[in-house]
Amino acid sequence: MSDSTKIGRTLLHTRRRMSDESFITLLVASVAVGLFLFASILVPNFFQLQNMLNLVTNNWAVISLGVGVTFLLVSGNFDLSVGGIVALSGVLAVWFSQSAGGGSALSTGLGFPYWLAVIGALGGALAIGALNALFVVRFRIPSIIVTLGTMMLARGFAQVITQGSQRNTNLPDVFGMLGNLTVFGASVKLPVVLMVILLVIAVFIEKKTVFGRLTYWIGANAVAARLSGIDKDRHVTYLYLFSSAIAGIVGILLASEFKSGYSNRGTLMEFDALVIALLGGVAIAGGFGSVVGMFFGALILAVVTSAATGLVLSPDWQYILKAIAVFVAILTQTWALARRNR
User: Which of 89, 109, 200, 226 could be cross-linked to 125 through a Cys-Cys bond (beta carbons 3.0 to 4.6 Å apart)?
Assistant: First the structure.
């Protein structure tokens, strides 16, 4: 047997051993790199190290939200409440931290110590997650309907607390520390480092733990998972609490970064988180996808948005470009998987 034949068979064997999930992740990563190189040709000064870093650091919030959304999508469930939770947790953190002796309604809070205000804000976020789990798990209402409703509920509470405006006065000095703290004197802020840690933990859970495998099994076939003795209801409840906790932390960090609680903060973040998951190859029906793929999906969206800004396109055209990117990516992934599995 010739060496070329041996090499060909080895490559074929390797190709067959690569899972569909790994194949899609590799495809998405290649598309992200290709788009970046293409944008570098069209947009002046696009191909720079700082711009590469900005594509990640400027989108830390959506990428973090995408972790929880990805796990739930893989399990066969939606979470559209994360944007509302971002607004609510940030507003609660500010309201709890403001001293009780303010000169106006929007400058008067509960006067909690900052650490207690953070715990209280996280409690509010987890309450929305628990409400999601209650209606999805106990009452069997479709998750897309439940989480759309709780998203509006959370943002509604935030608007009531801020009276449709924002709270940004009478705050302790420590309030702005977490969101603006840089690591080891570098320009990288603490929220970006936390995002990286979250991604590493999420990939470990996804690939190396029983919890991760159960998430895939539930999404692939919920009936078979239940007949196998898997407590699907408890698992989905944990996933909703996990996603709401991430959204709560993101909201607290954003409120700290801008030193304000704003009821419209996080608007459309829930859809961006869903988009980057779909761009990353996560199946909307569940049972397929990965956090790594979601990350590269976020890079694709970031490159499209950044390139559109560099080309001085209006926001309207940016929305159209995002829509085109989503449609093309999903169609390409579907075609590539169908062709590979012929």
Answer: 89
